[in-house]
């Protein structure tokens, strides 16, 4: 964080005043309460969780209010039980910062099971936004690099490259394959939809997928600090909280509904979404 913001925050703390929402979202976010517990399973309506009542994600932060750890996760279980997941506090995710580099990995604190680390390497820009992400896949063909581009402070698009994919530059029919996800926002600064394209040699080809984020509330978004955690990524991009999500795949040029989820949120007397 830049020095001038540190002095501003200290000055505001001494005066015991809150910053106004005058467009400086960086200061606003740093003075908002941090999400430390997520006890409700409302984010996971599509999971049949055997012990849903036990869900309790715990988040830790450093002095710069950057998330450093998430404790809690899900284990897949046999469908014969009537469920497909079980919550456990033995799974944790570490987020380690080193200058502009960040490493995110999963761990299981037991010898009973082993889980993949799902290692991700991030590079941050000067505004502490994600600039690049490198994912360690299960084989070289799934290895991928994501580049993030912003417009007016908001994520505008992500370009995904597959650097280890076999490519024959001598074959004019064999072009470099990439993917592009374009982000669109409403007048309130909330993510409205994304469009996902397959690209050949950097040129959009067919549309692969479209996502809609709808039915926003007026409550402050408690997930804005969790952009580096994949399951909260899309939620973290907005000012408020979407209660409806639809995802369509394109097959033969037609939209085919792949997923549709609706949430019912509870709020406290101040209008804040209840997550614990």
TrEMBL record:
This is YD repeat-containing protein. It comes from Kaistella gelatinilytica. It comes from the Bacteria.
